Amino acid sequence: MNFDAFSSGQVQSKLWLVRELEEFLGDLDKKYHIWILGGWYGVTNFIIRTRGRIPVSKVRSFDSDPECEPIADAINNLWVWQDWQFKALTQDINSLDWSDPPDIVINTSVEHIHGRAWYDSIPAGTILALQSTDMPHEDHHHTYAGLEDFAKDWNLTTAPVKKVKVFEYESWGFRRFLLIGNKP
Predict the structure, then answer these.
(1) Dihedral sign (CA 73, 78, 81, 86)
(2) What confidence score (pLDDT) does residue 66 get?
(3) Class of domain 3-182
(4) Which of residues 157 and 68 earns the better pLDDT score?
(5) Sequence-distant (≥ 6) Cβ neighbours of residue 178 within 8 angstroms
(6) Cross-strand bridge partners of residue 65
(7) 79 vs 60: CA distance, rounded Å
């Protein structure tokens, strides 16, 4: 298990995304079907559910690492046993079946995903919440110099949210970029 999933930067980033998504959605009179791409251990779903501000019908969390599925299901067990309101799945997000598309797609690890097939497959009009970073790392396939660089790469419509959060620690720091809008 990679405990970095529960680090201050990871948890703060996901909490920030959920708060901004709540504001973006505004009138929350429908239940949303949500897909979380690169979902790791299901922390994003846990935050959405425990905050209780986004009505959810079901969440599917996809990650290519098979170790993540049982851990994410355990962390989110409260929603797993309730008619599969949550389920983690081991799958390459570049080859998802979009025949029953979600209302919202969340990807908090854009920098880690090789290629753009996942993005190109998302139906137009779908609400997207995307995060990335300027932190250098050997596992990053996409790097961004700043927010505008990130926004240009992942063009969203409908008065998109474009924000930066700075993380400063004693000996290092990085920036997280957030985009929320609709897929054109």
Answers:
(1) negative
(2) 97
(3) alpha beta
(4) 68
(5) 16, 17, 20, 129, 130, 131, 161, 162, 163, 164, 165
(6) none
(7) 11
